[in-house]
Design goal:
Chain lengths: 321, 379
């Protein structure tokens, strides 16, 4: 029983990492007043670019770099449309998701002809699990052993990076000048503009942060969790991350808990497939899959506290003339 | 939606600018084709020939267009009320559930011309209901309609999978779909219309839903520009404050607009379900709801534009299938890229070329734009 719980928690961590990275990515752009529905698409191109580059250049690091580069490029397209040309941010995000979904399949098929997959990555080309010192030695110690060996040790570097990004994002957001200005530009861009700070440049920088994090999220999917890119491998994770962001009320630490919760629901639904629960009987897998979305809708409706988005979110900034 | 730009002559606004945006989208798509290592011009020729070259191609093009007219109208009706309904996909999916219930109950006893109207009502009602909840939450609880409708797409998908692998699946079958409908739930084909013009058709699914779609396009035009409700919707879309000042109930207008939008989305399911597959299968909507966004934006939210844009996308779908045969490197997913590019250039970057075109117009004939407006204080 205890081992089963540890296993579910272990897969909770694995499943929540891409959500967490994407969620923090969304946090940067939405805090700066740019809605980003394109998290899904940016993760997808990141996953594809990372796996492709890693397979071609035989290096995980080059893969990661490429993933970040391409993902940032897509973030800048979003910026170009929604900041420079003041286009509708949601429309632009939807467009990015489509371009990402289509181009990863077309290019993958044209370059590797494996039905939209990239070549299977060899050990040196993907991020391997890191075994912490002493993990194997104390594995057999009851309680502490499995927790240390399974939960804490034995993940890839990107997992630790994702969780390290939580305090880092908090620090950036609430303890640096950039963070203060970024939050200000999401609440009241006119005030930031009056202070002589460029609204557009601030928002672009926030979007670059978003691109970096979605790139890492994509790289995690295709180079750590799996050994290659499979078409449409994000499978709605970008939208769940968006839901988690709202659930977390745009705060980094909350975001971590929201992502862990949604990751846990996912892990539990995989684990419980077909087996009945003690009190409620057999829960259909589809119900567990739908639960994050249902919870988000209930939250949005204001039944579990109120989620108030950054005030200038979604509104293009027009200088007064 | 107010634009910070000056007015252009109508033909430039509604003809030239969409055309330029569309061309740019296709040029970028051409680069993707080149990146894949194929000739974009040959690809374009194959695509157009595949869509319009033979009678069967035309029938398929119009069949796909039918679907996109419904979803495009659905997105447009909500957009006139400044509501961005991304939930068309889920509303159409749930609309399919309504059709399934009607057809499975009556297909052995009633003829198609009795079932069809009932199915229309059921599809519209189920779709409207799925649009009602996000609308209510937006109007009463202030939750953002975009996020809720996305969530509802996923919830609809989960619910339909649950039903299609469970209650709706006939006993003993493995495939996650309903049983095939009997003849009573099959809609008559329209292929003979194309055959009148001398073209030959080997089985194509074009059916009377196409006519229904055209009627709906007309009704939407009537609603938006010729009724009080449509006027109120547009007023709210332009300025919620003005609408409130004029005594228009915010709740009523949001809920009505979203229910009409949901109903149109639900009716989309009639075309593939009753006109083609004769069953309800998992993921039968397959992205048509999202295509509706591209169609609505390209058609500039006007029914005539939407019908034209839907035919263009129908052409892309049918021609894209042919293209996949001729050029193995290009699969039908090319359409998804084109769709994305159209949404990007005709939607998000709608105003990118406008200043240049205005400058051009201003230098050729200052009167056509009004020199004062060129400075662009606008709204």
């Amino acid at each position: 029983m205890f081992n089963a719980i540890v296993q579910v928690l272990d897969s909770t961590i694995r499943l929540s990492v891409p959500l967490l990275l994407a969620c923090l990515a969304g946090l940067y752009s939405e805090r700066a007043g740019i809605f980003d529905i394109g998290l899904e698409g940016k993760m997808l191109v990141g996953a594809f670019a990372g796996a492709s580059a890693a397979a071609v250049f035989h290096s995980a690091l080059i893969g990661l770099g490429t993933a970040i580069l391409i993902s940032v490029a897509f973030a800048l397209v979003h910026g170009f449309a929604s900041i420079t040309h003041r286009g509708n941010q949601i429309v632009s995000g939807v467009a990015i998701n489509f371009i990402a979904a289509g181009s990863t399949i077309i290019l993958g098929q044209a370059w590797f002809s494996q039905g939209g997959r990239t070549p299977a990555l060899q050990p040196g080309e993907r991020f391997a699990a890191i075994t912490w010192p002493g993990a194997d030695a104390i594995r057999d110690v009851p309680i502490i052993g499995p927790i240390y060996a399974e939960l804490i040790s034995g993940h890839s570097i990107l997992v630790y990076f994702a969780f390290a990004m939580v305090p880092f994002t908090w620090w950036v957001l609430f303890r640096t000048r950039f963070g203060l200005r970024m939050r200000a530009v999401g609440e009241n861009p006119a005030a930031v503009d009056t202070a002589g700070i460029s609204v557009a440049w601030l928002r672009y920088r926030a979007l670059i942060c978003t691109g970096i994090l979605t790139g890492v999220a994509g790289a995690y999917l295709s180079m750590a969790q799996n050994g290659g890119f499979v078409k449409d491998m994000t499978a709605g994770k970008g939208y769940i991350a968006l839901a988690a962001l709202i659930f977390a009320k745009w705060k980094p630490v909350n975001a971590m808990f929201a992502c862990l919760l949604f990751g846990f629901l996912d892990a539990a639904s995989i684990r419980l497939q077909g087996s009945p629960l003690p009190l409620v009987g057999k829960v259909p897998a589809q119900f567990m899959q739908a639960l994050p979305y249902v919870l988000t809708v209930i939250l949005l409706a204001g039944f579990i506290g109120k989620a108030i988005p950054p005030r200038a979110g979604g509104v293009p900034y027009v200088k007064e003339r | 939606m107010s634009t910070p730009y000056a007015k252009l002559p109508a033909w430039a606004d509604y003809g030239l600018i969409p055309l330029i945006n569309l061309s740019v989208a296709f040029i970028v798509a051409g680069f993707v084709v080149m990146l894949v290592g194929e000739n974009p011009f040959r690809a374009a020729v194959i695509l157009v020939e595949g869509a319009f070259g033979r009678g069967t191609g035309i029938a398929f093009t119009l069949f796909y267009a039918t679907t996109f007219i419904f979803t495009g109208l659905s997105v447009a009706v909500a957009a006139h009320c400044s509501l961005f309904n991304i939930g068309t996909e889920g509303q159409a999916y749930i609309g399919g559930l309504g059709i399934a219930l009607v057809c499975l109950s009556f297909d052995s006893v009633l003829p198609w011309w009795v079932i069809f109207p009932i199915a229309i009502v059921a599809a519209a009602a189920f779709g409207a209901l799925w649009g009602l909840i996000p609308a209510y939450l937006q109007a009463k609880r202030g939750s953002h309609i975009v996020i809720t409708t996305i969530m509802f797409n996923f919830i609809a998908a989960s619910a339909m999978v649950y039903l299609l692998v469970g209650a709706l699946k006939p006993a003993g079958s493995q495939a996650p779909q309903t049983r095939n409908f009997l003849a009573g739930a099959e809609l008559p084909k329209l292929n003979w219309v194309i055959e009148l013009f001398g073209a030959k058709i080997r089985s194509a699914p074009l059916n009377i839903c196409f006519l229904l779609a055209l009627v709906m396009a007309f009704l939407v035009w009537l609603l938006i520009w010729r009724t009080r409700l449509g006027y109120e919707m547009r007023t709210y879309g332009h300025s919620p404050k003005a609408a409130r000042y004029a005594g228009i109930s915010e709740t009523r207008i949001i809920i009505t607009a979203m229910m009409i939008s949901g109903a149109l989305a639900g009716m989309m399911a009639l075309n593939p379900v009753m006109g083609d597959q004769h069953n309800v299968a998992i993921d039968f909507v397959s992205g048509a709801g999202y295509v509706g966004i591209a169609v609505a934006l390209m058609g500039r939210l006007h029914p005539v534009g939407i019908v034209l844009a839907a035919i263009l996308f129908g052409m892309l779908y049918q021609g894209g299938a042919e293209l996949a045969f001729e050029m193995p490197a290009i699969s039908r997913d090319m359409i998804v890229i084109i769709q994305g590019l159209v949404i990007l250039f005709a939607g998000a970057l709608e105003h990118m070329f406008r200043p240049y075109i205005q400058a051009l117009f201003a230098s050729v004939s200052p009167k056509s734009v009004g020199m004062q407006a060129v400075k662009g204080t606008g709204a």
